[in-house]
């Protein structure tokens, strides 16, 4: 039999958050090992559950959820999203400008498939949430990574963005609050990005899935609110703010000046119709989630569980010799740096694999987020304090042995 090869369209597609190191972790679990998983932002396994009122709404409405909904989503859910867009000051948003999807992940892929021809370029942050790069590649486009500057709090470098815009550039992606760095972008920086997008006629894609996961009284600004004259696609959902990842309830909001984007919007509507609709039961959670008590505020407030665990994980990591980390202002992750003079790492995936094998702690290497060097990794701080202390203690032990092995004791 002839071998069956994967499509050439997948040649540049990579998603290391669930990549080969995770496969090795699964084998270790099958052999009876307990793995501490700090690799994925999935709140439920760590005791962060969807609010009861959301669960109750899904249960009560389940008998009505057997059929397809409108391809864009249920009326009540889209109405609630429209009101939320208005609260965030997104301009020129009507019901028809909202499409509900099976999580933001589906909508990212849909948005890129509708936009890109072969060779089109999209500006994507480095580091990024790797699905963006993968979706651009899968659609035949080229992800051009602009650098976020660790020395400047992981804010995007405006000069680097400007230098990487070409005649083939179609759009720019903004992940704010950022995954994996936890940076939250101030309005002045967002305005500079808007000005570049206006100058070069770029679509702005704003991934705002963590817009309520904010610490230290930091405020989130939707970039679309600063761009009434531009076409902006804002993506959000229930996964993180409402700890409902498995519900797969996300949405995209089309805002601003849409006249020149009619053909593209027709393409989005076509793709939304082709998958018939997003799953209907979870759509019944959206109105209650957005309009009900915002329990995430308690978790991120000083003394709240997420805030405590962020502070603890940051303290423990930065106490390790040769490890530094910008403290995140949002999201669920730390993105610490390993001093290359202390930790000379040639292959960070191999480095993370060795950590897994020796200490049974699962992380994701920085290159898995399209970072430009082999000197970072991402840590999820969702586990409770005792597990974080144990996990980071194991990381510290591994790094101590690594320093000694390479003769780079500090």
Automatic annotation (TrEMBL):
<comment type="subunit">
    <text>Homodimer.</text>
</comment>
<feature type="domain" description="Aminotransferase class I/classII large">
    <location>
        <begin position="35"/>
        <end position="394"/>
    </location>
</feature>
<protein>
    <recommendedName>
        <fullName>Glutamate-pyruvate aminotransferase AlaA</fullName>
        <ecNumber>2.6.1.2</ecNumber>
    </recommendedName>
</protein>
<dbReference type="Pfam" id="PF00155">
    <property type="entry name" value="Aminotran_1_2"/>
</dbReference>
<keyword id="KW-0808">Transferase</keyword>
<dbReference type="InterPro" id="IPR015421">
    <property type="entry name" value="PyrdxlP-dep_Trfase_major"/>
</dbReference>
<dbReference type="InterPro" id="IPR015422">
    <property type="entry name" value="PyrdxlP-dep_Trfase_small"/>
</dbReference>
<dbReference type="InterPro" id="IPR004839">
    <property type="entry name" value="Aminotransferase_I/II_large"/>
</dbReference>
<dbReference type="InterPro" id="IPR015424">
    <property type="entry name" value="PyrdxlP-dep_Trfase"/>
</dbReference>
<dbReference type="InterPro" id="IPR051926">
    <property type="entry name" value="Ala_Aminotransferase"/>
</dbReference>
<comment type="function">
    <text>Involved in the biosynthesis of alanine. Catalyzes the transamination of pyruvate by glutamate, leading to the formation of L-alanine and 2-oxoglutarate. Is also able to catalyze the reverse reaction.</text>
</comment>
<keyword id="KW-0032">Aminotransferase</keyword>
<keyword id="KW-0663">Pyridoxal phosphate</keyword>
<dbReference type="GO" id="GO:0030170">
    <property type="term" value="F:pyridoxal phosphate binding"/>
</dbReference>
<comment type="similarity">
    <text>Belongs to the class-I pyridoxal-phosphate-dependent aminotransferase family.</text>
</comment>
<dbReference type="GO" id="GO:0004021">
    <property type="term" value="F:L-alanine:2-oxoglutarate aminotransferase activity"/>
</dbReference>
<comment type="pathway">
    <text>Amino-acid biosynthesis; L-alanine biosynthesis.</text>
</comment>
